[in-house]
């Protein structure tokens, strides 16, 4: 008997299946060697060529150039065709617009204005928003700030009207013409990076001080948002809808008026909403160039270190911001095609209610809110601030001294003693490694521009303060953002505080910081952290919530603890949102640190303030404003470039 043995395949002779393994970039092993070598080389060069940190000169070419420019403007304001037929007419037109808006608001009387605002809110946003609007305006009057509120509304409405008239057409043009969009993009980037202070000096140079300069500065500050959101809305109109309308024989103008604009209407209303918010924040800052309104009350409170007065004015600004935000937001929702509303009936109702409100206001009220009805939070706020200041003096002084000695002073000494050419080289080399050459070159050119302005030492002092404040902002923002993303109740409880903090003008944050820590660099750091944390919290929360649920479920199924889930899944996958949060935090911290020049922060912020206050320092102040813009460009390019580079790197698949 013969047995047949089963044939066994020889595994060694069979071809092995090829398993696809994720390949790391070839540059990664090189970077592990190159980066430490570059760091050691940089340290060695710094120790060899570091400077003594001499004080900047007061006679740089940029100071003389801007001082001569102001002298020429003052001498030729009434004779040069540029002013006679350009700048002066523009100033006059803006003044006429602001006076017309102000006359319309005050002509209704206080009761008529409140009723008209309630009627407008009822038509655009519904009855609840109308009740909120009426209560908010009455509250502003009860705070004893009715004239200031009307002045602020007048400046805001004037600037927003101009921003919409200019920004919406430009947004449509940039969306439809790629060349225009490409040309506007770097300009809009630079305008959005610029701190609010940087707009004021050129406005005083061209338009002097007062309401017209304030309206134009607010317009320039707010119009980039109008252009960008309008372009986004027009660009997102469905291509199939456009093709269908084109196939039916629609012309370009018919496509624009009957297809693109109606479908982009919610985005345009959102653009108006964000423009109003930006304009309201800028109008307060223009108090430094003699603009009337609630900003004057905050500046007065800052001069007197009166936290209570600033609280009243800041509360009035927050109330205005909330009301305007609710009206325009609800109007955007109501303008959706899914919820049509008969426009003719709404227009008739609005006209009737406004007419009735005007008649009632003119008949029964004057322009001034009754003074006997007022009340103020100032005494209670000042008493509470005084108690905290008295009982926390030792702790606040210890914190300030520790931060100054352990962080601010060493970092400032390092940056100030670094030669400008070495700093530019470091930005170029390490920026290209982290953010790419396209981001590093503009950043290095911006650093070289700061050195060319003759304000290197002050710029490095400002940069040290910005870096410390940004680090503290990111720590607080990430902790709170993670907490909000993982606990819905905490997020709901914190959201009203974040809303109020984002609408509060930057000046208001200086008052409690000054009361607790006195006038110093650390005061500017504290104010900057409080000012910049809210948007960072929102962006971090959004980034973590946007992590794919499948990735979270897979990690939990694999046995990950909440801590491991956060550190190994959610934070790495939300790195784009974290870098965007860092970018926005840097821009806002830079703006606030510059405002800190009003409370002893020194450096570029003080130079800008001195340029406003003293004519002989105008050239230096304008150069300092330009240096602030260049610092913003440097930091913005590096963070945005790092974000784009991380987004372009493919994530390694899970084994």
Task: Summarize the entry for a quick read.
The protein is an all-alpha fold.
Describe the structure.
The chain has 28 helices and no strands. Mean pLDDT is 78; it is low at 1-17, 19-28 and 336-340. It has 655 residues and is an all-alpha fold.
Summarize the main sheet.
none
Structural class of the helix and strand makeup?
mainly alpha
Order of helices and strands: HHHHHHHHHHHHHHHHHHHHHHHHHHHH
CA(first)-CA(last) distance: 52 Å
- Say how many strands there are: 0
Strand content of the residues, in percent? under 5%
Measured as a percent range, the helix fraction is over 70%
Strand-helix topology:
Layout (H helix, E strand, L loop, with lengths): L26 H23 L11 H16 L4 H27 L1 H17 L1 H16 L3 H31 L1 H16 L3 H11 L3 H25 L3 H9 L4 H12 L1 H21 L8 H11 L2 H28 L8 H22 L13 H14 L1 H24 L3 H16 L1 H16 L3 H31 L1 H16 L2 H12 L3 H25 L3 H9 L4 H12 L1 H21 L7 H11 L4 H31 L7
Helix pairs in contact: 2-28, 3-6, 3-9, 4-5, 4-15, 5-14, 6-7, 6-9, 6-12, 6-13, 7-9, 8-9, 8-28, 9-12, 12-14, 13-14, 13-22, 14-16, 14-21, 14-22, 17-20, 18-19, 19-28, 20-21, 20-23, 20-26, 21-23, 22-23, 23-26, 24-25, 26-28, 27-28
Question: What brief labels describe this structure?
Answer:
single chain, disordered N terminus
